[in-house]
Amino acid sequence: MPSYSARQRKSTIVMALCLMATLIGVVWLFLILFSLLINGLPGLSLATFTEMTPPPGSHAGGLLNAIYGSVVMTIFGVGIGAPIGVLAGTYLAEYGRHSKVTPVIRFINDILLSAPSIIIGLFIYGAVVVPMRSFSAVAGSIALAVIVIPVVVRTTEDMLLLVPNTLREAASALGLPRSYVIRKVTYRAARAGLITGILLAVARVGGETAPLLFTVLSNQFWSANLLKPMANLPVTINNFINNPDANWKHLAWTGALLITVAVLSLNISARFFGASKDGQ
Amino acid sequence: MKFSTLLAAGIALAVTATAAFADDISGAGATFPFPVYSKWADAYKKATGVGLNYQSIGSGAGIKQIQAKTVTFGATDIPQKAEDLAKFGLVQWPQVMGGIVPVVNLEGIAAGDLVLDGPTLANIYLGKVKTWDDAAITKLNPSAKLPALPIVVVRRSDGSGTTFNFTTYLSSVSPDFKAAVGAGQAVEWPVGVGAKGNDGVAANVMQTKGAIGYVEYAFAKQNAMVNTDMINSAGKRVKPKLESFAAAASNADWNSAPNFNLVIVNQPGDASWPMTNATFILMYSQPDDKAAAAAALAFFDWSFTNGAKMAEELDYIPMPVSVIAKIKSSAWTTIITK
Amino acid sequence: MSTADETMQAIPHVAKQQRARVLLGMALGDKVFALATQVAAYLVLLVLAGIILSLIVGAWPAMKAFGFEFLITRRWAPQLEPEPVLGALAPIYGTLVSSFIAMLIAVPFGLGIAIFLTELCPHRLRKPVRLAIELLAGIPSIIYGMWGFFVLGPFLANYIEPSLVAAFANIPVLNSIFSGEMVSNLSLFNASLILAIMILPFITAIAVDVFSTVPPVLKEAAYGIGCTTWEVVNNVVLPFTRVGVVGGVMLALGRALGETMAVTFIIGNSFKISGSIFAPSTTISAAIASEFAESSGLHQSALILLGLLLFVLTFFVLATARFMLMRLEKRAGA
To answer: Domain check: are B141 and B197 in the same one?
Structure first.
């Protein structure tokens, strides 16, 4: 056996490597944010939020139609996906707690949680776009909903399982029907956790691009028709950044900055929301 | 839960917004004419209040979209054969002409500093000429300072009319290229990185040191990219500009081409730019939405009458008056708009 | 008891009826709600079935046309007449190799960070460091793509890759893997590095979680007999959490295999299999993202078949990951 000092030296070296790994790991976030700020901030102005995406070769324009489309599709996607996710999570944690199907559903849900989002795009193309014979905001929203569901199912189940059984028993002892116990007692006890899950779902789909590519396509112009292609931030960024037009490129960076700031602040607020409840 | 209120708010927002805007003319396809179409669209909107929603998604995708009837017109740089037109009941005509130019990204090399000939360009795209200081390039450019940098070949990853015309040209000047790759809207490139659209190729070339790509001239000019000169079929060095495109275009014999099915690369003439091509519009002869078809034709009619100058500003060549007359009397009369 | 009975009798008949109605309504609501949760839960299974079914239906023409050959054909020629030649080998190669390189980089870094966080990091720094790493997982894929395209790619191509090429220039085999012939900011290697950054937070988060399942008494015992920090990690923590770590690594692998936008931006979209990691390549997801919108017929079907292959691949990787993590959870629970 090597001497203690040799072992100590070896340990120090490995730990120094771990420290280095951490420093390198932490630096990426700041490098990316730095690039986004440098390139995106100069283009940020009121016009970004009030003007439409411009034709190439111009010097003005904004991202209004793209921001609008993203907000609408995120609202619809989460609006469809979150209730389904909460209900399904409720089943797993409450009614189906001892059902044999529950572990299967949980397992499948966990896999869907990490499934490649481009596959979801293919699925919705085949299931919605082809039958409707048109790319549409509806198809995009459904694609986003399919991504939302597993996120919300997972957090809902986890959060409901954290609620102590004594609470449920106490409520049941008052003679409340089970659904009332769940809705009036368990949901309230787990409210912070449920909202955290939904915030995380919003953050997850807010920047999704792959499932939108061939479900909503995009639109140069203002369109609020849900049955037609609609402009949206991620696909607009994708189109603008792949273009040599300088104005488009600036807009793409600005859009990227907006999306990233929005998504990261949602992530952080979700964390604080969850943490504040945990601490009690 | 609050989802229902959110949902209701979203629906209300969507409904109020839908009513406020009139229908635009919708079209999709080639990226090659995108700069001139969007310029026309801008001017047309100012003149008439009618907008044009043109998605520049590539010729291949444009053909697919018009076949799927998701747009009123399709745009393609690849002239369609009579039987393909007949199969879908489509009508085709050339809308405007332009030139494809090689663009490079090399330190210290400005536009017009380099010259390439067809066979060398073909060999670069075959992966046979691998570095910028290769003898084939230095022989053509004895005075240029060329680095020992690897050539990063950039080409299209999508179905593209620009690729179709570019590979048609390379196949016509290089038997090797014809045998190994051939001409088509999407080909099996032996080398290179794929980019989407003329814009994607331009963006990639601008971003990559030692890159070469091929784009419609307007993309190169608008973005101040470095284009090369070419040696044409007469053995003369020509610069890409309106005059050399026009010289090549003037050779095109539209009157003896049925359905305007004509590829005009590698034209003879001392002043002819070798990679000149037309870009086409596809519409249904019996459209489902007659009003939309009429609106689209009104736009094209307007751009034939008022758009020539705007096209030339972007170095596109407007169709000659005689050809426009023939388009109106042949192609357009077969489209039922009433 | 008797007083309760008296009260009941004191309630007028109408009130009793009302009460019965309310109770009936509640019972009905109860049933409806229970049913709704069950339907929603089964919907999860339905989504999976829908995905598989729609992929198989879409991929069927390509399966019939190409059969098993699809997996071993190197050519990708959708334009050929009369029948296109389409093979999955190049995108499969690109998918596997890019994910492999990404894992090779991200796993040591992720574990190193997790060890630092659990064993060394001052308590006050733990949360911010973890946050900085985990927020990487929140950045949308397309942002990684454009950042890789404009910032990381050119940096690698201009500064890092030439020196790697030079370092291996005289070593056989390695000099063809690190070949300088094609160095550009669009390459398999650049895509792998972006992937490594993207999956780092997943590996780190799970490693930190499973490391904290080690009972403190085990570690304290090891420290007590004079083990160094590294020896505790190597002989106690890692063996105890091996299943969980492998599960986390597999989970990250599942992510890497299916990552789309970031890779599409910087891998170069080339269906050529090259020995050099600095050459452009493609992955299954990049091929779908860049070609699907304009494909038709057999070409489109082949792209869906690629999607099906990717789904099956990630399904097995993710299932293995979940299975291993479940085993660890069970043990931690017991």
So the answer is: yes
